[in-house]
Amino acid sequence: MEPRAAVMAWLAKIVQGWPGSFRLLAEGVGLTQRSFRRTGVTGMVSGWLREEVEQLPEGHPRHRGRAIDVFTAQLIQARGEAGVNWRAKRAELLMGRVI
C-alpha cells in the first residue's frame, strides 16, 4: 500500500470510530490541548474537532531552566564589545565554573 493510501485508511478508521478512536489515539500518544496550541492547529480546526480537543487534558508548560546561568554580566558586556569573541569568552567562563 502506498504511503498516502495507508494514511487515508488510518484516518478512515479514526473517523469511523469517532470520537472514541480519537480519544484513544490522543491518550496513547500523549496529546493534550497544549499540543494543538503549539502547532497552531487550534485556530484552524472546525467545531467538531475543536470540541474533542477541548476534552483533552490541558497539558503542562515547558519550563526548562538553565542549569548554569551562562549569561552573566561579564558575558553580556563582552557580547556588546567590538572585536570580542563572545563564544570563546562564554566557553572560558563555563570552564571556569566547572573546574
* Biggest sheet overview: none
Report low-confidence residues grouped into runs of 5 or more. none
Percent range of helical residues: 55-70%
> What's the total count of β strands?
0
Count of alpha/pi helices: 6
Structural class: mainly alpha
- H/E order of the elements? HHHHHH
What value does the average pLDDT take? 80
Helices and strands in order:
Blueprint: H1 3-16, H2 20-29, H3 33-39, H4 47-53, H5 73-80, H6 86-98
Summarize the structure.
This protein has six helices and no strands. With 99 residues, it is an all-alpha fold. Helix 1 crosses helix 2.
Can you walk through the features of this model?
The chain is mainly alpha-helical and 99 residues long. It is built from six helices and no strands. Helix 1 crosses helix 2. It is elongated, with a radius of gyration of 24 Å. It starts with a helix and ends with a helix.
Defining key terms:
99 residues; single chain; 60% helix; mainly alpha
